[in-house]
Amino acid sequence: xxxxxxxxxxxxxxxxxxxxxxxxxxxxxxxxxxxxxxxxxxxxxxxxxxxxxxxxxxxxxxxxxxxxxxxxxxxxxxxxxxxxxxxxxxxxxxxxxxxxxxxxxxxxxxxxxxxxxxxxxxxxxxxxxxxxxxxxxx
Length: 138
What we know:
By secondary structure, the chain is an all-alpha fold. The chain has a domain at 59-138. It is built from four helices and no strands. The protein has helices spanning 2-32, 48-57, 61-94, 104-136.
């Protein structure tokens, strides 16, 4: 009986360590594996300050095209994050180390998959709005 309790607690510690490792790896590789930034000013990744200034001062067709491109890229990134979390939720649901119903990991992954999918949808809408504004300014 004592060995059974030790094995269960070890499995929980291992599970938590694995979850933290997956999160760190996902973040780290998400940063490292991003494609190189093109030289074109329209497609260059905007800093937070640049994005904020561009939103506040967008007047030209080019301004709105930059914003549309930014939001399309953001939507793609969020869709990828949603897919990755859905894959993790599926893996947790199939896991044999613990009962998924007793672990918050499955629910966590499902919630983040939904959150990122919703964010992608909103970014798509913002991209479409800025594209319409740019088209109107032709």
